Amino acid sequence: MPAQYRDGAIELSVPASFMARALLPVTVDPLITTVFVENTTADTFFADVAVMDTLGQALVCYEYAFSASSHGVYVVRFSLVDGSPVGAPVQVASGSDNWRLPKIAYNEAGNQFLVVAEAGASGSRTIRGRTLDGTSSYPGAQFTISTAASGSEFIKPDVGGDPNPQGPTYFCVVFEAVYSSTDHDIWARLVTASGGLYGAAPIAVDYTSGDDHNPCIAKSNGRPPASSQAWTVVWDRWYSIFDRDIHGTQLGPTGALLWPNFAIENVAMFGAVPAVSTITDQESGGRRYLVVWENDYVINDNDLLGMVMEGPNALTAITNLSELQVPGDTQNQFHPTVDSDGFRFAVAYAEPYQTSTTDLDIYAATLHYNPATAALGVSEGHRNLAYTSSLEDCAQIAAVRTAGSDPAVDSTRYAVVWDREVGTGDHDVNGAIYEGTTGAGAHDIIATTCGNNWPALAAYGVPALGQTVAYVLTLGGLGWPLMLIGTYGSIPLCPGTNSCSLGVNPIWMIATPVIGGQIPADPAFLGVEIYVQGFEVLPSYPLGCVLPVMPSVTIRTRIE
């Protein structure tokens, strides 16, 4: 939607072509709020975010430059309701610790966050960590995570949490090991909620002669049951400066490698710096995840690619996510991050303003997998989160769902953070609370050609995955109830009688004045439209013809 600043206000222009085919009422879906996590004159960057559902808060970690050779890490909280700060920043590592590239995750059973980072001087770096109390942010002791892994130094950590409220549960930390200048490996280590190492040794995720870089682990291993929880880990394998492939595997909740590592993208193209979502909830069709990465699609057109997978198996073809959102797109997109609310996938990324090399903005998109077509669809595309003249980059995203929230509560909400370059030596950390869908569904009234004025049909509940809806028919006292549920139809109900159109191609016919139930929490139902019409059967009508309940209406329910 075109937007411009005019006379002290932001003016949004809805295209006439959209309004011509829109079903009223139309809702403009705004960003909930922008968050200024750290906006002092300090140089802060490389932020990451994790959420906890119990308090409705997010905890952001970020790197703090005390000097060129002395970096530390802080964390700060903000509300997932209105973006307001909660408490003061807490120091996790001082400048003398020299922690860099911090990452954060949450463990529900232990009510603990874990911050990890690479620590020490270049050439002898290790992976260090520190837990923080989920309620107070009170830090535990620092400890080393990369102990006993093979390599001369260890870099680029990432961490996934566990939303299962029934312990024992763990954090899973992945990191890159430098074995030689042409052979980097991927390792993992489980960490307890109390800040101890779990298991006798680190886990060799990819300990081969391949040159493997940039590991990324899902923000969590998905909601229970534990029997199907899994952290997905992805990384890029370097063959040449022009050819990098994407590989991956999955680990169970106690650290077992579920598959030999598998190729996700292994054609001759530049696939780089992948990201991976949390797996979807266990419903019909399995537990899926989305892998995204950036690719030099053509010269001067860097696009985002993605693929939905289940275990080691691809469910979709490699999809150009940039083209999917904006057909014919010629802009560059960089540095994607992705998570899942259990049903959908939200991707955040950086895009330049026109052809600028100094003005990047942050965008987001909500996608869903359609099992009928084995393809990705767009629920909301190219949604601007940060649109200033500054350089904004390095976004990270976390779904509220990754903290273990109930699917009926905040199931589409995400926390997003990024870096903003204010000036030389001054980067800030900004963020946003993003609703990952255009709404929570709707009950709409659809006109028919019937002109009767008695009984009423009403809809209750929020039509969204996992929610309960009900339809109540109030009779006029002249006959018996009949409810039709199905797809939209315009077939005359009784030709020549009352000029009435059916409004529904029935899948079910139920002789009751009340119907309802829980919408399956399954991505296959996203965007589905259900039509409901109620009737009062009058015995005096020939061949059982019936009169519609409402004057010229049928109820349409769109599921989000």
Give a nutshell description of this structure.
The chain has 560 residues and is mainly beta.
At CATH level 3, the topology of the largest domain is: Neuraminidase
Estimated radius of gyration: 26 Å
* Biggest pleated sheet: 6 strands, antiparallel
Count every helix, treating DSSP H or I runs of 4 or more residues as helices.
2
Overall outline? globular
What is the total domain count? 2
Chain-averaged pLDDT: 85
Q: Share of helix among residues? A: under 10%
CATH class of the largest domain: Mainly Beta
CATH architecture of the largest domain: 6 Propeller
Uncertain stretches: 492-498, 542-552
Number of strands: 40
> Structural class of the secondary elements?
mainly beta
For the termini, the CA-CA separation is 21 Å
User: What proportion strand?
Assistant: over 45%
Oligomer: single chain
Present the secondary structure layout.
Elements (H helix, E strand, L loop, with lengths): L2 E4 L2 E4 L3 H6 L11 E6 L5 E9 L4 E11 L2 E10 L5 E9 L5 E9 L4 E8 L6 E8 L9 E2 L8 E8 L9 E11 L2 E10 L4 E10 L4 E7 L13 E10 L2 E9 L10 E4 L5 E6 L12 E10 L2 E10 L2 E2 L4 E2 H5 L8 E7 L4 E8 L7 E11 L4 E12 L4 E9 L13 E11 L2 E10 L6 E6 L8 E5 L7 E7 L5 E8 L17 E6 L3 E5 L10 E9 L8 E3 L4 E6 L2
Antiparallel strand pairs: 1-2, 3-31, 4-5, 5-6, 6-7, 8-9, 9-10, 10-11, 12-13, 13-14, 14-15, 16-17, 17-18, 18-19, 20-21, 21-22, 22-23, 22-24, 25-26, 26-27, 27-28, 29-30, 30-31, 32-40, 33-34, 34-37, 35-36, 35-38, 38-39, 38-40
Description:
- The chain is mostly beta strands and about 550 residues long.
- It folds into 2 domains: about 400 residues, Neuraminidase; about 120 residues, Immunoglobulin-like.
- It contains 2 helices and 40 strands.
- Strands 32, 35, 36, 38, 39 and 40 form a 6-stranded antiparallel β-sheet that branches. Strands 20, 21, 22, 23 and 24 form a 5-stranded antiparallel β-sheet that branches. Strands 3-31-30-29 form a 4-stranded antiparallel β-sheet, with no helix packed on it.
- The longest helix is centred in the N-terminal third of the chain and has 6 residues.
- It is globular and about 90 Å long.
- About 5% of the residues have low confidence.
